[in-house]
Amino acid sequence: MSGTAHATVTFDGRFAREFQEMAIPWRAEEVPEPHLLVLNEHLAAELGLDPAFLRSPEGLRLLTGNAVPAQASPVAQAYAGHQFGWYAPRLGDGRALLLGEIGHADGQLRDVHLKGSGRTPFARNGDGQAVVGPMLREYIVSEAMHALHIPTTRSLAVVGTGRSVQRETLLPGAILTRVASSHLRVGSFQYARSTGDIGLLRRLADYALTRHHRAAAEASNSYLALFQGVISAQASLVAKWMLVGFVHGVMNTDNMTISGETIDYGPCAFMEGFDPAAVYSSIDESGRYAYRNQPVVAEWNLARLAESLLPLLHDDEEQAVELAVEALGEFRRQYSEAWSAGMRAKLGFRDGLDDDVTSPLVDELVALMQESRTDYTSFFRHLGKAARGQADDARHQVPGTAGFDAWLGRWRALAPDADAMDRVNPVYIPRNHLVEEALTAATGGNLDPLARLLDAVAAPFDERSGLERYAAAAPESFGPYRTFCGT
Q1: 50, 93, 111, 254: which is the annotated catalytic residue?
Q2: Domain ranges in the chain?
């Protein structure tokens, strides 16, 4: 390929080269009329890509996989997975391609990956396409998560294809360019283990150590240390989800990364009225992936990773199981510690306060919020004002103020740090009615609501004049919210 951007950027094809058993060489379908919908210029710069080039016709061909740099080896990756608890031995990238790896400004590699680039051998009955709404949802929510300091895959661009895609109606097609520390998943290890090739499983684990858990490689049992590293990363990640009210919606094992990044923003949503049973996915009829179940599901998924890694943990299977069970036993402690520390920060508790003082306050507040279905995001932000002596906004969100006032008095007596609270309690999240407004407008060709929403969530902790509607709860007319995966 020509162009100054490609003279200085090198795509590696390491995964494609080293894991031919788990990668099928493939090319994206030709895009008839590529047109840029949104470009992440900051991320482009971090990857050494020239935004002006990416906006050019040649750049759009790169972002749709129709022009491939000489060093790149596009592949559809193979993986297995438990989907809603049921094991599927062969899933893989049915409508996605890994273009290759690229250097980031931090010195680490990033995967550059396409979503919606056409059918692959893993497509089963799918059409391989994606449509504008779900691809922009992933862009909005993943970039909001990044701004909230939650580990996540990133979105580089969404490109319209000029092709109509059949869903419930005909909708405009689009391709997302996703950037990740890697696309190694629990399901990747399940697939490798299912082949019976322990050499492949070992190579995959070594690759994960190199990409994500380098310190573990120095341990006496590096594969046990790898498992422990994934446990720690996921305990921290899920605690962060819970602390901002994020509901992933589809926590299948193929959607849990080894890196500890959030991946796959299909039927996801941010909880508004506090409800531990909150479910937004249209296909999660049993509530398996409800808000309150996310830590339990994460632990279950990690048990599936343990099963896959057993041959590497010890030559004796019984001892391997013992090591795995002992390691997995740390998940609940680590998750609880991460959540508790995060909740202490949200409530502005100063260092040195005893848990016997703070824990009852946390428990009572959670019960009050659940009883009143308090708007999760704005309530914590209003508590920052209450710490400054302005309690009306917070009190307004908790009907039956006697219980709340009693709680408020005991909390204020601990001198909460209001400025510290404002640094961790966001003003702006991708509120569901605003996301739907932006997606509907963009599907019809109007990108202005998308741009305004992205501007708000890019700086979620900084309250700004003129953005009041982006901090407000959904109107009652919005009704119960359901999301769809888009396939």
Answers
A1: 254
A2: 4-180, 184-427+471-487
